[in-house]
Amino acid sequence: MNQTKSHIKKILKKLSEGFEYSEEVEEYVKEEGELVLAKKKITKKFVPPDMLAIKMLLDFNENGGKLSQMTDQELINLKNSLLEKLKGEENDSAITIQ
Known about the structure:
Elements: H1 2-17, E1 19-31, E2 34-47, H2 51-63, H3 72-90, E3 94-97
Antiparallel strand pairs: 1-2, 2-3
């Protein structure tokens, strides 16, 4: 259970600070029977800080927060929903760098 709490706390911290990541897309063309790299596109994306994550993290740091009162299953469900939120926000607004 402590491992789950620490993992949730790490996810909350990352969401509360916001983060940047790069996404790489490569396009290939077939030349003389072989695939050759034709174009490579690197896109930098930024996920802004999430206010709910900030609130939960502050609550957690101040008094153990709601996380200390949750069951193992509730913690696992929260962790999974936070991870899904991270994946979903990674697909939001992008800045293209060429």
